[in-house]
C-alpha cells in the first residue's frame, strides 16, 4: 500500500489475521452523549474485544451517516462538543486499553484545525490515523505530507461504485487498511450483509490492497463471522451507538463482547 507498512494499525490487523480471525473495528462518536460518557464507552469497547476503535468527530452536515449516528452527533454538538475533545477520547483509548485508536472525520474539521496541527495533536494523543470519508487521494496532498511527518495512517474508502482506475489510485494512496463500504447509501445496522461487500474486497485485493476492512450494515456476531471469511476486519458502528444511547457504556461493553465472540 504505502511506505507505512509497519504501523501500529497494520500490525494489529496482521496479528488478528495470524490468529485466524478478522479484526473487530468499533465506531463511536466523540462527545456522545457527553465527553465523559464517550470516553467510558470507548474504553469499554477496547476492554471487551475491539481491536481498533474509530472515534468519530460530530459534524453538522454528515453526508454518509444514517439516522442513529446523525442523532447521536447532533446531541453531541448540542451538548457543546469541540473538535479538541476527540483527542481526549483517543488518549483514553491509547492509555487505558490495548486497542488501536483512529479518528473518523469529514475533512472540514481537520482543515479548520489545520491539517498539520490536527495530525500533530492526534499523534501526540496516541492516535494511529484518520479515516476520511469525503477526502479523495487526488485532493489529499496536504494530508499526505502531514501523515508522513507525524507517522499516521491514511484510511480511504472504496465502494461498489468505485471504478477500476479510482480503486487503483485509492489502494496505493491508503495505508493501515482500506475501508470498503458494503452498500450504496448511508450507515445503519441491517438484517443481512450486502452481497456487494465480497466483490468490493476482491476488487481491492486485485488492485493490491493488503488489508481491507468492511463497514456499513454490520450488527451481529453472525455478520462478523460472515464478513471475516473474506475481509481482514469488520467495522461496527450503528449497533454500538444504539447500545450506548439505550444502555450506556455498560451496554457497549456487552455488545462488544458478543461481537468478539467472548459471550
UniProtKB/TrEMBL annotation:
Top class in the EC scheme: lyase
Active site: 54, 65
CDD domains: Tryptophan_synthase_alpha (cd04724)
Keyword DNA damage in annotation: no
Top-level taxon in the UniProt lineage: Bacteria
Keywords: Amino-acid biosynthesis, Aromatic amino acid biosynthesis, Lyase, Tryptophan biosynthesis
Record bears the keyword Amino-acid biosynthesis: yes
Pfam family, one: Trp_syntA
Annotated SUPFAM superfamilies: Ribulose-phoshate binding barrel (SSF51366)
CC per GO annotation: cytosol
Pathway linked to the protein: Amino-acid biosynthesis; L-tryptophan biosynthesis; L-tryptophan from chorismate: step 5/5
UniProt-listed NCBIfam families: trpA (TIGR00262)
Family: Belongs to the TrpA family.
Known function: The alpha subunit is responsible for the aldol cleavage of indoleglycerol phosphate to indole and glyceraldehyde 3-phosphate.
Protein name according to UniProt: Tryptophan synthase alpha chain
Amino acid at each position: 500500500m504505502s511506505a507505512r507498512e509497519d504501523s501500529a494499525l497494520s500490525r494489529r490487523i496482521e496479528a488478528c489475521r495470524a490468529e485466524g480471525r478478522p479484526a473487530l473495528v468499533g465506531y463511536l462518536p466523540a462527545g456522545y452523549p457527553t465527553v465523559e460518557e464517550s470516553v467510558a464507552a470507548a474504553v469499554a469497547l477496547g476492554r471487551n474485544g475491539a481491536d481498533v476503535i474509530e472515534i468519530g468527530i460530530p459534524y453538522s452536515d454528515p453526508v454518509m451517516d444514517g439516522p442513529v449516528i446523525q442523532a447521536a452527533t447532533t446531541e453531541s454538538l448540542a451538548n457543546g462538543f469541540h473538535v479538541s475533545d476527540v483527542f481526549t477520547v483517543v488518549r483514553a483509548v491509547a492509555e487505558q486499553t490495548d486497542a488501536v485508536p483512529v479518528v473518523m472525520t469529514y475533512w472540514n474539521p481537520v482543515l479548520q484545525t489545520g491539517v498539520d496541527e490536527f495530525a500533530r495533536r492526534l499523534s501526540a494523543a496516541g492516535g494511529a490515523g484518520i479515516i476520511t470519508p469525503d477526502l479523495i487521494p487526488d485532493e489529499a496532498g496536504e494530508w499526505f505530507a502531514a501523515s508522513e511527518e507525524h507517522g499516521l495512517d491514511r484510511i480511504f474508502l472504496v465502494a461498489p461504485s468505485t471504478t477500476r482506475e479510482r480503486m487503483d489510485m485509492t489502494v496505493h494512496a491508503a495505508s493501515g487498511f482500506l475501508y470498503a463500504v458494503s452498500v450504496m447509501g448511508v450507515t445503519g445496522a441491517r438484517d443481512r450483509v450486502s452481497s456487494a461487500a465480497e466483490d468490493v474486497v476482491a476488487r481491492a485485493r486485485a488492485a493490491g490492497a493488503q488489508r481491507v476492512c468492511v463497514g456499513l450494515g454490520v450488527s451481529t456476531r453472525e455478520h462478523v463471522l460472515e464478513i471475516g471469511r473474506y475481509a481482514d476486519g469488520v467495522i461496527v458502528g450503528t449497533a454500538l451507538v444504539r447500545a450506548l444511547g439505550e444502555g450506556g457504556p455498560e451496554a457497549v461493553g456487552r455488545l462488544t463482547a458478543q461481537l468478539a465472540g467472548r459471550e
